[in-house]
Write a structure and sequence with these properties.
The complex is a heteropentamer of chains A (101), B (652), C (174), D (540) and E (348). Chain A has three helices and no strands. Chain A is mainly alpha-helical and 101 residues long. The model of chain A has no long low-confidence stretch (mean pLDDT 83). Chain E is globular. In chain E, strands 1-2 form a two-stranded antiparallel sheet. Classes of the chains: A mainly alpha (101), B mainly alpha (652), C mainly alpha (174), D mainly alpha (540), E mainly alpha (348). Chains in contact: A-B, A-C, B-C, B-D, C-E.
C-alpha cells in the first residue's frame, strides 16, 4: 500500500516543530545545534517529498546542497564552540552572552 | 628738479626707509639705522618743500593730481592718486618739517634703546602713512593713511612692549580709533554709493554743481551731507581725540616722548581736523552737524582743560592740553572758520611738538621720571630746554606775538562772528585755563626747588645737541608760525595791504556755496576788542598760575585745593572717571554679552540642542540595546517570531 | 509494505527527534539524532532517492555527527544544569507555543493542499543514479563548485577559529 | 575619436591637476618603512609639482578667452538610461582664485606640518593630497553629480586628519564635523536628485550638468525648498550663524595643517557653492530669502567677533574670527552686486591667506610650547621677534588694515552691499570691523606683548628657515593683494558680471507655475561658461 | 519466500560463514605469525600447531564474568559493542564475489545488493563504524576510554576523507559506483596489452593511500592510538570484558576482512584472476570459486595487517594527524586528478 505524500510532509512539519522547540528551549549550545540540524533535516525531507511528488530531481539537488552547507555550518559552528569554550569554560548559551548590551 | 611729478615719492620714501630698516638692516648696525631713518624723511621733506614751493609759486596746475596706478577695477574704479593743493601743501609742510625735526631729536632721545631700529622703522612708517593721509587724492588713499597712522600709533605706543601698560594703551588707541573708523567707513560708503567716486575734487565739484543732491533727506531726518559729515566727524572724533572718544590719547603717553610729540600732538591727531576741512563743502551744507562739531569741540576743549589742571604727570598735562587744543580746532571748523582751524593746527603742531620735546628733554634729564611733583627748579640745569619750553608755553597760552595768539584769536573771532557767543565764551574760558595749567607745568617743572631724589638731582644735565637743536628750531617755528596768518583786520588797521598769507593761500579749498552764510565780518574794533579780551584772559591765567605755583610755592596750592574741594580734585585727577564709566557701561556689558553668546548661545543652546539630539539617539540605542541580550536563544526566538509573521503575511 | 516501512521509520524519526530535543545529555541527543537521520535516510530511499539516503548517512551520521560527538567529548559537556536561575519560562513557553502554531498552520496547509493524494509509482528513470549525477554535474555545476568553495572556506575558518593560542585569543581572554 | 579618462589624466587638462595629487600620493601609503625624511620630501615634491601643474595650466590660458579659461572634454560616466551622468570639469574666473589658493596652500601646509605631525606622516600627507583632489574637483565640477562626489571626497580625509592627527578631543570634533557636514550634504543630494529628475521629466533624459540645470525654470515653492536644501548644505560649510559650532571644535582639535586647509579652503566651498550653484539655480528663491541670509551673515559677523573676543584659546579665537570673516563673504554674495561679489571672491582668498598664516603661527607656537592658551603666553615678542612680526602682520591683514589684503575684500563687500541698497546691513556689519580689531589685538596683547610671565617663554626659539619659508609666500601675497589688488580682481570680473547679469535678468521675470525648460541661451544659458569657447581637448 | 530472497539469504550465508571465522583464525594468526617472526613457538598446545587456540579463547570470552562499571552510561555501554558489528555485517553486502551466474534460468549477480550506488552504500555504512568506539569510550566513563574515543573519532573522520578520495579515484576507470563494474573493468582491460588493468597498477599511489587509510580506519598498528595500551591502558575498550570485548574483537577483524575485500576488489581484480575465466564453469561454481579467490586475496591482506603490526612502531597523535591531513589527503587528491586526467585523456 502506498503512502500519501502528505504524510511525509506532515512528518517533516512535525520534525521541524520539534527541532524548533529544541533550538529555542535548549541551553546547551551543541544541543541547539543538533536541533537546527533536525530542522534542516525536516526541510530536506519536505524537499525530497516534493521532488518525488513533482517528479523533479531539482528538490534532491537542493537537499544535496543543504547537506553540504550543513557540513560547513557544523564545521564552523563547532569550531566556534571550541573557541568559546576555551574562553568561557562553558557552552551554555545563557552564559556566553558575550554580546550582551 | 620737477618735484611735482615726483609727488608720490614723498610718502613712498619713508615707507622705503621703514622697509629697509625693518627688514634688511640688522639690530647692531646703529649708524646705518640712523642714516636710513633720517635720510628717508629728510629726503621726503626736501622733496615736499620743493614741491610746495613750486606749487605755491605757480609752477604747477592747480590743484595737482597724480594717479600712480589703479587700485581696483570695474564699477568701483579707484586710483591710488595723490593731490597737491593748498590744504595738503600746508599739511605736508607741517608733517615733514616737524616730523623730520622729531626724527632728529629721536636719535638722541632713543639712542640707548634696544629697539632703536624698530623705533625708526615704525617712525618712518608713520611718516609715510601720514603723508599718504594728507596727500591722498581720494578718501580711499586717505583712509589707508588714516589707518596706517593708527597702526603706527598702536605700534609706537606699545613700543615698550615688555611692560604691561604700553601695549594695553596701544590697543586702546587702536580700538577707539577703530570705532571712529567704522563711522568713517560708513560715511565713505554713503559717499561712494551716492557719487560713485571717492575723489575729493570730483565730490566737491558735484556738490557745488548740484547742492540739492547733498541736501536731499537721507536717513534719520538727516540730509546726505548731514549723514556723511556726521559719519566722518565720528571718524575724526576717534582720530582727533574728541569727546567721547578722547580717552585713548592720555594713555597714549605710554609711548616714547618723541612719539607723543609727533603722533599724538603735532600730526596724527590733527588728521580729523584736516579731514573736516577737506570736506568743508559738505559741512557747509550741513549746518546742524557743523554746530554739533563746534559744540563737541568746545566741550572737549574745556573738559580736557579742566582735567589738565589737576594732572601731575608732565606728559599727561600736555596730552590733555592737546585734547583741549584739538577741541579748539574742531570748534573752529564747526563755526565755519576752516582756515582758522588749519592755522591753529599748524601753529599747534610747532608749539605742542616743542612742548613735548621739551618735556622729553626734562624726562631725559630726570632719568625717566615724569611726575612733576618730583621736579622743580630745573631751569638751572636745563639752560636750553627751559627757554624753549617757556616760548612754547607762551605760544599756547596765546600771548602775542607768538604763534598761538594769532591762531587762537582767529578761532575766537570766527566763533564770535558766527554769532556762536556761547561757544566763544567757552573758548575764552578755555584759553584762560590753558594759560593757567600750562604755566603750572612750567612753574612746577622749572621753578622753585628740586623735589626729586638726590640721585636724580645729581644726574640732571642738559640734553645733547641732537636733541636741543630741534628744540631751538621748533621754538623758532613756535614764534614765527603765527605770522603767516596775522588777521586781515590787523593789517588793515595798521594800514597795510592784507598780508594774511594763509588765508589767501587756503581760500581755494574753502568752498563758497551760494546761500550759505560764511560772512565772518567783524568790525575792526570788535576784532581788536576780542583780541584784547583773549590776551587779558591769557595773562590772567598766567597770573593765577604764578600766584598759585610760582616761585617756591611748589605744590602747596594743589594740596590746599585737595583739602578744600576733595571731591572736585578727585574728579579731575581721575579724569571725571570716564575710563571707568566706559568700562562699566560699554566694555563689561559687551564682554558679558560675548561671554553669554559663547557660553549660553553656542555651548548651551546650539551645542546643547545638538547634544540633546545625540543623547536622544543614544538613549534610543540604549533602550534598543536591551533587546540584544547576548542570549542566542532570545535571538532565535525573535527570528522565529519573525518567520511566523512572515508566514502569516505570506499566507493570509 | 511501504506503509509499514513508513510507520516504522517515521515513528522512529519522531520519537528519536523528541529524544534529541528532550534529553539532557548531549551525547544521547546526538545519538538520537543519528537514529532520526538514519530513519530519514530510509524515508529518502522510499522517496526514490538512494543517493540522498546514502549521502545522508555518509555525510550526516558518518561525518557531521561524529564531529559533534568529538566536540562534545573534547569539551566534556555535561548534562544541562537544572536550576531556577537557569530556567526561563517565558522563552520556553513562547517557543513551545510558536512551534505548535507553526506546525499546526503548516500541517493544515499541507493537508489542505494534498490531502490523501497518492503518489505515482516510482520510475526507473527517477531513481537512476546516473541521471542524478548528470543533473548535479551539468545543470548544477556552478552551485556545486560554489558549495565546494564554501566548504573550503568553512574548513579554513574552522581551523582558524579553533586553533589554540593565537594572539587574538589571548586578546579576547583578557 | 572619443576621449578617455586616461587621455584627460595625461593631457594638459584640468583633470590632470585635479587627480595628480591623489595618484602621485598613492606611493605614500606604501612607504610605511621608508625614512620619515623621504616621505616628507616626496610629499612636498608632489605638492610642488601640483602647484606647478596648476600654474602652468593657468598661465597657458591666462586671459586667452573672455569668461571661461578652460574646460575639459565631457566624458560619459554613468549611462543608465534615462539616467545620465557626465564627467565635466571646467575652470573659470570664479573658481580660478580658489584653485590657485588651493595649489598654493598645499605645499605650505605640508611644509608647515613638517615636525608638528609625529605619526603616520605618509598617511597624513596622503590625506592632504586626497583632500586637495576633492577640493579642486568640487571647484571645477560642472556637473552637479560630479560636484557632489567631490564634495563628499573632501569630507573623509578631513575627518581623518582631525580624527587621527588631532588634539585631545579629536574624536568629538571629528564626529561633529562629519555629522554637521554630512547632514547638510545629504539635503543637497536630495536637491540635486530632484533637479536631475525634474530635468528628466521635462526632456526624458536625466541630467545633472550645470548648463542643463541652469535652463530649468522652477516654480517659486520648489525653488524655495531646493534653495533651502542647497543653502543649508553650504551654510554649514561656510559656516553661518546657527550651524557654526562645529568649526571651533574642529579647528581647535585639528592639527595645524588641517586647520589651515579647513579655514583656508574648505570653508570657501560653502560660499563658492552659494555663488556658483545656489544663487544661479534658484534666483527667485534666493532673491526672496536675501534679507534673511543677509541678516544671518550679519549676525555671523558680529556674533563670531564677539565670541572670538572672550576666547581663552588662541586657536579658538582664530576659529571664531573665521566665522566673522566668512560672514563678510556671505554678506557680499547675498548682496548680489558685482563689486560685492568681486569683494567676496577676493575676501575668500584673503581669508585663506591671513587665517592660514595665523593658524600656521599658532601651530608653530604650539609646537614650541604645547599649549594654545593665552594664559601661558605673554611677552613672546622678546624671544621671538620675527614670529611677533609675522603674527602682527597677519593679524593686521585679518583685522582689515588698509594696504593689506583683508581691507580690499571687506571694503569692496561693504561698498557693494551699500550700493546694492542694503545700507543697514553694510553699516551694521562695519561693527564687525571694530570688533575684529578688539579681539585680534587682544590676541596680540596676550601672546606677544607685555612682560614675560612664564619662565618657559624666556627662551622660546624664533622662527626657523623652514617656518619662514612657509610663511613668506603668504605674507608677500597679503601685502601684494592689499597694495595692488587689481591683477587679482581682473580675471574673475567677466565671469561674475555674466553670472550677475543672468541672475538679475532671471529674477526680473516671474517664476513660472510649473517647471519649465528655458531655451538654451547663448550668453545666459551658461553664464560663466559662455558659448563660443572651444573645449580644451586633451592634449594629444 | 521469493527466489530473490532465497538467493540473497544464500549469499549472505556464504559471507557470514566467512566473517564469523575470521576472528578465531586471526586470533591464531596473530599469535603464531609474530612468534614465527620473533623466532619462538607461540601457542602450540591446543590442537595441531595450536590451531584451536582461537576457539579456546572464544569460549573463554563467552564464559567470563560480565562486568559493568558502576558509573557507566549503561544503555550506551551495552549498545557500543553491538554497534561495532553493524558496519562490518552490512558493508559486505555490496562486495561482489563472482561473475553473474545462471541459476534455475535466472541471471543472478554474485553480490547481495546489486545496486548502482554500491560503493556509496559501503562507505555510508562503514562510516558508522566509529560510533561503537566513541560510544564505548564515552559510556565507560573512564578517562582512558574517553581519550581513546576522542582519538578514534578524530582519526577515523580524518582518514575517511583520504580513504573515500582513494576509492573515488579507483572508481573512475570503471565509471560506475557499482563494484561489480569495477571488477569487470579490471578483467576486461589490459595495460600495455598484457598486464591486467588492476587498480594497483593503474594508480599505485591511490592504493597506497587506501592501504594506509585502511590501517587507520581499522585502528590497527601503527595507527592504534585509540587503544594504545602503553598510554591508555586499552583505550576505548578498557572497561569491556568477556563477550562484549569479544564483540569489539570480532568487529575489528571483520572490519579488516571487509576492507581487505574492498581493497582486493578495487585494486586487485576482486574475485578474478588474470587468465582464469570463471564463466567457463557451470552453475553456481563461478561464484564459489570467485569467493575462494577473493578469500585468498583477503587472507593475504590480513597477513599484511599482522605483518605490519609487528613491524612498525606506533605513530604519535600529531604525526598521525599530520600524515592524514598533510600527506594522505593531498596525495589522494593528486591521485584523483591524475586518474581524472587519464580518464579525460582517454588513456583508460
Amino acid at each position: 500500500m502506498s503512502v500519501p505524500i502528505s504524510w511525509y510532509l506532515l512528518l517533516a512539519a512535525a520534525l521541524f516543530a520539534i527541532g524548533a522547540i529544541g533550538a529555542l528551549t535548549r541551553r546547551n549550545g551543541i544541543a541547539i545545534f543538533l536541533s537546527i540540524e533536525l530542522m534542516l533535516n525536516a526541510a530536506n525531507l519536505t524537499l525530497a517529498a516534493y521532488s518525488r511528488l513533482l517528479g523533479d530531481r531539482a528538490g534532491q539537488m537542493v537537499v544535496f546542497f543543504v547537506l553540504a552547507v550543513a557540513a560547513a555550518e557544523a564545521a564552523v559552528g563547532l569550531a566556534l564552540f571550541i573557541g568559546i569554550f576555551r574562553l568561557r569554560r562553558t557552552i551554555d548559551v545563557n552564559r556566553i552572552n558575550l554580546l550582551r548590551w | 628738479m620737477d618735484a611735482l611729478s615726483l609727488l608720490w615719492w614723498i610718502p613712498a620714501l619713508p615707507f622705503l626707509g621703514a622697509a629697509v630698516n625693518g627688514l634688511l638692516v640688522r639690530n647692531g648696525q646703529k649708524g646705518l639705522v640712523t642714516f636710513v631713518g633720517l635720510a628717508a624723511p629728510g629726503a621726503s621733506m626736501l622733496l615736499g618743500l620743493t614741491a610746495i614751493w613750486q606749487y605755491a609759486t605757480g609752477l604747477a596746475p592747480e590743484p595737482l593730481r597724480q594717479a600712480v596706478y589703479s587700485w581696483t577695477v570695474g564699477e568701483m574704479s579707484i586710483d591710488v592718486a595723490f593731490r597737491l593743493d593748498p590744504l595738503s601743501a600746508v599739511m605736508t609742510f607741517v608733517v615733514t618739517v616737524v616730523g623730520f625735526l622729531i626724527h632728529v631729536y629721536s636719535v638722541g632721545y632713543m639712542g640707548r634703546e634696544e629697539g632703536y631700529r624698530r623705533y625708526f622703522s615704525f617712525l618712518n612708517l608713520f611718516m609715510g602713512a601720514m603723508l599718504l593721509l594728507v596727500l591722498g587724492s581720494n578718501f580711499l588713499v586717505m583712509f589707508v593713511g588714516w589707518e596706517g597712522v593708527g597702526l603706527c600709533s598702536y605700534l609706537l605706543i606699545g613700543y615698550y612692549f615688555d611692560q604691561e601698560f604700553p601695549p594695553e594703551a596701544g590697543k586702546k588707541a587702536f580700538v577707539v580709533n577703530r570705532i571712529g573708523d567704522f563711522a568713517f567707513l560708513v560715511g565713505m560708503l554713503a559717499l561712494f554709493a551716492s557719487f560713485g567716486t571717492l575723489e575729493f575734487g570730483e565730490i566737491t565739484e558735484r556738490v557745488l554743481a548740484a547742492p540739492e543732491i547733498a541736501k536731499a533727506p537721507y536717513v534719520f531726518g538727516l540730509s546726505l551731507a548731514g549723514f556723511v559729515t556726521l559719519c566722518l566727524f565720528i571718524g575724526a572724533m576717534g582720530k582727533s581725540a574728541q569727546i567721547p572718544l578722547y580717552v585713548w590719547l592720555p594713555d597714549a603717553m605710554a609711548g616714547p616722548t618723541p612719539v607723543s610729540a609727533l603722533i599724538h600732538a603735532a600730526t596724527m591727531v590733527t588728521a580729523g581736523v584736516y579731514m573736516v576741512v577737506r570736506t568743508n563743502v559738505l559741512y557747509q551744507l550741513a549746518p546742524e552737524i557743523s554746530l554739533f562739531v563746534a559744540g563737541i569741540g568746545a566741550a572737549t576743549a574745556i573738559f580736557a582743560a579742566t582735567i589738565g589742571l589737576a594732572q601731575n604727570d608732565i606728559k599727561k598735562v600736555l596730552a590733555y592740553s592737546t585734547v583741549s587744543q584739538l577741541g579748539y580746532m574742531f570748534l573752529a571748523a564747526g563755526v565755519g572758520a576752516y582756515v582758522a582751524a588749519i592755522f591753529h593746527l599748524a601753529t599747534h603742531a610747532f608749539f605742542k611738538a616743542l612742548l613735548f620735546l621739551g618735556s622729553g628733554s626734562v624726562i631725559h634729564a630726570m632719568g625717566g621720571e615724569q611726575d612733576m611733583q618730583k621736579m622743580g627748579g630745573l631751569r638751572k640745569h636745563l639752560p636750553l630746554t627751559y627757554p624753549t619750553y617757556l616760548i612754547a608755553t607762551l605760544a599756547i597760552a596765546g600771548i602775542p606775538p607768538l604763534a598761538g595768539f594769532f591762531s587762537k584769536d582767529e578761532i575766537l573771532a570766527g566763533a564770535f562772528a558766527g554769532h556762536h557767543h556761547l561757544i566763544w565764551g567757552v573758548g575764552i574760558l578755555t584759553a584762560g585755563l590753558t594759560a593757567c595749567y600750562m604755566f603750572r607745568s612750567v612753574y612746577l617743572t622749572f621753578h622753585g626747588s628740586f623735589r626729586g631724589s638726590h640721585e636724580q638731582e645729581h644726574h640732571l644735565h642738559e640734553s645733547p645737541k641732537v636733541m636741543t637743536v630741534p628744540l631751538v628750531l621748533l621754538a623758532l617755528g613756535a614764534v614765527t608760525a603765527g605770522w603767516i596768518g596775522i588777521p586781515t583786520g590787523l593789517w588793515e588797521m595798521a594800514g597795510f595791504a592784507d598780508h594774511n598769507v594763509l588765508h589767501h593761500f587756503l581760500s581755494p579749498v574753502i568752498a563758497t556755496l551760494p546761500g550759505v552764510d560764511t560772512g565772518h565780518h567783524l568790525s575792526h574794533s570788535t576784532e581788536l576788542l576780542l583780541m584784547l579780551v583773549s590776551v587779558a584772559v591769557a595773562l590772567g591765567g598766567w597770573l593765577v598760575a604764578k600766584r598759585l605755583w610760582g616761585g617756591e610755592r611748589g605744590l602747596a596750592a594743589d594740596r590746599t585745593f585737595a583739602e578744600r574741594l576733595p571731591f572736585v580734585q578727585r574728579l579731575l585727577a581721575n579724569k571725571y572717571y570716564v575710563d571707568e564709566l566706559y568700562d562699566r557701561v560699554i566694555v563689561r556689558p559687551l564682554a558679558g554679552l560675548a561671554r553669554g553668546c559663547w557660553k549660553i548661545v553656542d555651548t548651551l543652546l546650539i551645542d546643547g540642542a545638538l547634544h540633546v539630539g545625540a543623547f536622544v539617539t543614544e538613549l534610543t540605542g540604549d533602550l534598543g540595546r536591551f533587546s540584544t541580550t547576548g542570549n542566542i536563544r532570545n535571538y532565535a526566538l525573535y527570528f522565529f517570531a519573525g518567520v511566523l509573521l512572515l508566514f502569516w503575511w505570506m499566507i493570509f | 509494505m511501504e506503509l509499514l516501512a513508513f510507520v516504522v521509520f517515521g515513528l522512529a524519526a519522531l520519537v528519536s527527534a523528541i529524544v534529541v530535543v528532550a534529553h539532557r545529555s548531549p551525547i544521547h541527543s546526538t545519538l538520537s539524532l543519528v537514529v532520526t537521520l538514519v530513519s530519514t535516510a530510509a524515508l529518502f530511499l522510499m522517496l526514490g532517492s538512494p543517493f540522498l539516503a546514502a549521502l545522508q548517512v555518509l555525510l550526516y551520521t558518518g561525518a557531521i555527527l561524529v564531529l559533534f560527538l568529538f566536540v562534545i567529548m573534547l569539551l566534556n559537556v555535561q548534562r544541562e544544569r537544572t536550576g531556577a536561575a537557569a530556567r526561563s519560562p517565558f522563552q520556553t513557553w513562547s517557543a513551545l507555543i510558536a512551534a505548535f502554531v507553526l506546525a499546526g498552520a503548516v500541517c493544515r496547509l499541507l493537508w489542505d493542499a494534498h490531502g490523501e493524494a497518492v503518489l505515482a509509482p516510482l520510475t526507473e528513470d527517477f531513481v537512476a543514479l546516473r541521471n542524478t549525477a548528470s543533473l548535479l554535474f551539468r545543470d548544477y555545476l556552478l552551485p556545486f563548485e560554489m558549495v565546494g568553495l564554501l566548504l573550503l572556506v568553512a574548513v579554513v575558518v574552522a581551523s582558524w577559529v579553533a586553533r589554540r593560542g593565537g594572539a587574538d585569543s589571548e586578546e579576547e581572554s583578557r | 575619436m572619443s576621449t578617455s579618462f586616461l587621455d584627460l589624466l595625461l593631457g594638459d587638462t584640468i583633470t590632470r591637476f585635479v587627480f595628480f595629487p591623489t595618484v602621485a600620493g598613492l606611493p605614500l601609503l606604501l612607504m610605511r618603512r621608508a625614512p620619515a625624511a623621504t616621505v616628507k620630501i616626496y610629499a612636498l615634491v608632489v605638492s610642488l609639482v601640483e602647484l606647478a601643474l596648476i600654474g602652468l595650466f593657468v598661465v597657458g590660458r591666462w586671459g586667452s578667452t573672455g569668461a571661461l579659461l578652460a574646460r575639459d572634454a565631457v566624458l560619459p560616466w554613468i549611462d543608465l538610461a534615462p539616467l545620465s551622468v557626465v564627467y565635466e570639469v571646467g575652470l573659470d574666473g570664479i573658481s580660478l582664485p580658489l584653485v590657485l589658493l588651493t595649489g598654493l596652500l598645499l605645499p605650505i601646509v605640508l611644509l608647515g606640518s613638517w615636525n608638528g605631525i609625529d605619526k603616520h606622516w605618509g598617511g597624513y600627507a596622503f590625506s592632504m593630497l586626497l583632500l586637495t583632489t576633492g577640493i579642486l574637483g568640487a571647484l571645477v565640477a560642472l556637473d552637479l553629480f560630479v560636484f557632489y562626489v567631490f564634495w563628499e571626497v573632501m569630507l573623509i580625509p578631513m575627518y581623518l586628519i582631525i580624527g587621527i592627527w588631532g588634539a585631545e578631543r579629536r574624536i568629538y570634533a571629528a564626529v561633529k564635523f562629519f555629522l554637521f557636514t554630512m547632514a547638510g550634504s545629504l539635503l543637497m543630494l536630495i536637491g540635486i536628485l530632484w533637479l536631475g529628475w525634474t530635468y528628466g521629466r521635462l526632456t526624458g533624459v536625466w541630467s545633472f550638468r550645470y548648463e542643463d540645470l541652469l535652463r530649468l525654470e522652477l516654480p517659486i515653492d520648489q525653488q524655495l525648498w531646493l534653495f533651502g536644501a542647497f543653502a543649508i548644505a553650504f551654510a554649514i560649510k561656510v559656516p553661518m550663524f546657527p550651524v557654526h559650532t562645529w568649526l571651533p571644535d574642529a579647528h581647535v582639535e585639528a592639527p595645524t595643517g588641517g586647520s589651515v586647509i579647513l579655514a583656508g579652503i574648505l570653508l570657501k566651498l560653502g560660499t563658492y557653492g552659494f555663488l556658483r550653484f545656489a544663487l544661479p539655480l534658484f534666483p527667485h528663491a534666493a532673491d526672496r530669502l536675501t534679507p534673511w541670509l543677509l541678516a544671518l551673515a550679519l549676525v555671523g559677523i558680529v556674533y563670531g567677533a564677539l565670541v572670538a573676543w572672550v576666547q581663552v584659546d588662541m586657536k579658538k579665537l582664530v576659529a571664531y574670527s573665521s566665522i566673522a570673516h566668512l560672514g563678510f563673504v556671505m554678506l557680499g554674495i547675498m548682496a548680489c552686486d558685482l563689486v560685492a561679489w568681486q569683494g567676496a571672491l577676493i575676501q575668500m582668498v584673503n581669508h585663506g591667506l591671513s587665517t592660514g598664516a595665523l593658524f600656521l603661527l599658532v601651530g608653530m607656537l604650539y609646537e614650541r610650547r604645547h599649549t594654545k592658551k593665552f594664559e601661558d603666553f605673554g611677552g613672546l615678542a622678546k624671544p621671538m621677534p620675527w614670529f611677533a612680526t609675522v603674527l602682527v602682520f597677519s593679524t593686521l591683514a585679518s583685522v582689515g588694515l588698509p594696504a593689506l589684503n583683508g581691507f580690499v575684500g571687506e571694503f569692496m563687500i561693504l561698498v557693494g552691499t551699500f550700493k546694492a541698497g542694503w545700507r543697514w546691513f553694510a553699516a551694521l556689519s562695519t561693527v564687525g570691523v571694530v570688533l575684529a580689531a578688539i579681539y585680534l589685538l587682544k590676541m596680540l596683547q596676550q601672546t606677544i606683548w607685555g612682560p614675560i610671565t612664564r619662565e618657559e617663554n624666556e627662551s622660546v626659539p624664533d622662527l626657523g628657515l623652514r617656518e619662514a619659508l612657509t610663511l613668506a609666500p603668504l605674507c608677500v601675497l597679503m601685502l601684494w593683494i592689499g597694495v595692488a589688488p587689481k591683477p587679482f580682481l581682473e580675471p574673475s570680473r567677466p565671469a561674475l558680471a555674466a553670472l550677475l547679469e543672468d541672475y538679475r535678468s532671471r529674477c526680473a521675470e516671474p517664476a513660472p507655475d510649473e517647471p519649465l525648460l528655458a531655451p538654451a541661451r547663448v550668453s545666459a544659458g551658461s553664464p560663466t561658461f559662455a558659448a563660443g569657447v572651444v573645449d580644451q581637448e586633451a592634449g594629444r | 519466500m521469493s527466489p530473490e530472497t532465497l538467493a540473497a539469504l544464500a549469499k549472505m550465508g556464504l559471507w557470514l560463514a566467512f566473517l564469523i571465522n575470521v576472528a578465531p583464525i586471526m586470533l591464531w594468526v596473530e599469535r603464531r605469525a609474530p612468534a614465527f617472526m620473533q623466532d619462538r613457538l607461540g601457542p602450540n598446545r591446543v590442537g595441531p600447531l595450536g590451531f584451536f587456540q582461537g576457539i579456546a579463547d572464544a569460549a573463554k570470552f563467552i564464559f567470563k564474568e560480565d562486568i559493568e562499571p558502576a558509573t557507566a552510561d549503561r544503555g550506551l555501554y551495552l549498545l557500543a559493542p553491538v554497534l561495532a558489528l553493524v558496519p562490518c555485517l552490512t558493508t559486505y553486502l555490496v562486495i561482489p564475489f563472482g561473475p553473474d551466474i545462471e541459476v534455475a534460468g535466472r541471471t543472478m549477480a554474485s553480490v547481495v545488493i546489486d545496486s548502482d550506488s554500491g560503493i556509496f552504500v559501503f562507505l555510508a555504512l562503514a562510516s558508522l563504524g566509529v560510533y561503537s568506539l566513541v560510544l564505548a569510550g564515552w559510556a565507560s566513563n573512564n578517562k582512558w576510554s574517553l581519550i581513546g574515543a576522542i582519538r578514534a573519532s578524530a582519526q577515523m573522520i580524518s582518514y575517511e576523507l583520504a580513504l573515500t578520495l582513494a576509492v573515488v579515484a579507483a572508481l573512475v576507470p570503471a565509471g560506475s559506483l557499482h563494484l561489480g563494474r569495477v571488477v569487470d573493468y579490471q578483467i576486461g582491460e589490459r595495460l600495455f596489452g598484457f598486464l591486467p588493468a588492476w587498480g594497483v597498477l593503474v594508480q599505485p599511489i591511490g592504493f597506497l593511500v587506501f592501504l594506509v587509510a585502511m590501517f587507520a580506519e581499522t585502528n590497527r598498528l601503527p595507527f592504534d592510538l585509540p587503544e594504545a595500551e602503553s598510554e591508555l591502558v586499552a583505550g576505548y575498550h578498557t572497561e569491556y570484558g568477556s563477550i562484549r570485548f569479544a564483540l569489539f574483537f570480532m568487529g575489528e577483524y571483520m572490519a579488516m576482512a571487509v576492507l581487505s575485500a574492498l581493497a582486493a576488489t578495487l585494486y586487485f581484480g576482486g574475485w578474478s584472476l588474470p587468465g582464469v575465466d570463471l564463466m567457463q564453469l557451470p552453475g553456481v561454481l563461478p561464484a564459489l570459486v570467485g569467493f575462494v579467490i577473493l578469500t585468498v586475496k583477503v587472507a593475504i591482506f590480513m597477513f599484511l595487517f599482522v605483518w605490519v603490526r609487528w613491524t612498525f612502531p606506533r605513530f604519535r597523535y600529531d604525526q598521525l594527524m599530520r600524515l592524514g591531513w598533510k600527506v594522505l589527503l593531498p596525495l589522494a587528491l593528486a591521485n584523483l586528478v591524475y586518474v581524472a586526467a587519464l580518464a579525460v585523456g582517454g588513456k583508460l
